[in-house]
Amino acid sequence: GFAPYEYTEDGATVIGVDVDIANEIAKAMGRELEIQNMDFDSALLAVQQGKADFAAAGISVDPDRQKVMDFSVEYATSRQVVVVNKEAKRVDSVDALTADTVVGVQGGTVADFYCQDDLGTKDLKQYKKFMEAAMDLKNDRIDCVIMDALPAEEMVKANDDLEILEGEVFTDKYAIAVQKGDTEMLEQINEVLQKLIDEGKIEEFTVNHTTK
Asked: What is the distance between the alpha carbons of residues 24 and 63, in angstroms, rounded to a whole number?
C-alpha cells in the first residue's frame, strides 16, 4: 500500500517503481527475481539477516540504519507531508503539529522516528498498511497521517474526504538496502541504478505508476 513505489492491484501481485527497479537489477545479474511481500520492518530485518539479497521499499537512509545495513546510491527524493480529514481538520497546518497531535504512521519508517524523536508524539498510531491509517483518519480516530508525498497523493485520489496540507514536514532520500558488508551485491545494484538514473528510467517508472 505504498503506491507508486510498491502496491497491488489484484491483492496479490506486487507492482510499482521499486519492483521495476528490482526487475532491472535481476536482469542485469542474470538472475530470476523473487519478490517477498512483507511488512516494512520485516523487510529491513530480512536484509540484515541475509534472508533477502536486497530490500527495495521506499527506504530512507538514516545513520541508525547505516549501522546495520549498507545502502545503494539514492534514487528518489521523498517529501514527508501531512494528510488530514477535510471536514474534521484537527490539524490545519504543518506548523501546527505538536506532541499532543494524534498521528498515524507506517511503523518503522522515518515518519515514525520523527514523531517519536523530534515531535515527541504522545499518542502515536503505527500501522502496517496505509489503507488502515486512511480508514482511521476518515473515522476521526486520529488527527492526521505523516507519510511520503507520492503515496499521500494516491491516498487522497482514492479518498476524496482526505487532503494534503500545504508544505512538508521534512525531506529525505530513498535507496536500496543490502546486508552489511555485501559489497559485491551493492556494486552491481549501484551500476544498474546509476544507469537507470542517467537514462531517466526511474522518472519514467514513477510516471507509469502514478494514477492519472
From this structure: 28
